[in-house]
Specification:
The protein has about 130 residues and is α+β, with helices and mostly antiparallel strands. It has a domain of about 90 residues: Sandwich (Immunoglobulin-like), CATH 2.60.40. The protein is about 15% helix and about 35% strand. Strands 1, 2, 3, 4, 5, 6, 7, 8 and 9 form a 9-stranded mixed β-sheet that branches. Keywords: Lipoprotein. This is Putative lipoprotein.
């Protein structure tokens, strides 16, 4: 078997390997600057029953106190939603949850803003359903 036949048989592997190696140059790296402004900051909301069990399927609504714009999310199987995000900032928001006929006390959340993001203060709110 001559060298020409070997190249025809295995040449595509070398070509593929060179494409894969050059393709790695575009892969994310810990040393590269990533756009940290791209992802919005979210408020973590936990919803619990009055006896401390996490509630799946609770509806959580956050309303901007100045504009009255709101976002609603639904808690997952761990009783958590992160649907409330900084699009409601910079004005304070009112957060409340409901599950069936049960409702929580409303909590107020402020925002700490910089040139890139507004971060909720506090960053986690636990709401307890009242009987």
């Amino acid at each position: 078997m001559g060298m020409g036949t070997k190249w025809k048989r295995y040449g595509w592997l070398g070509l593929l390997a060179s494409v894969l190696v050059t393709g790695c140059d575009d892969a994310p790296s810990a040393n590269r600057h990533e756009d940290t402004c791209a992802e919005p900051m979210s408020l973590r909301v936990e919803v619990m029953s009055s006896d401390g069990a996490y509630i799946q399927g609770a509806s959580v609504t956050a309303t901007n106190l100045e504009s009255n714009v709101s976002i609603t999310g639904v808690t997952d199987d761990r009783g958590i939603t992160t649907a409330i995000n900084e699009t409601l900032a910079p004005s304070p928001i009112r957060v409340v949850a409901t599950a069936g006929s049960h409702v929580t006390r409303a909590e107020r959340v402020e925002w700490a803003c910089d040139e890139c993001h507004c971060t909720p203060v506090p960053d986690t709110v636990t709401l307890k359903l009242q009987d």
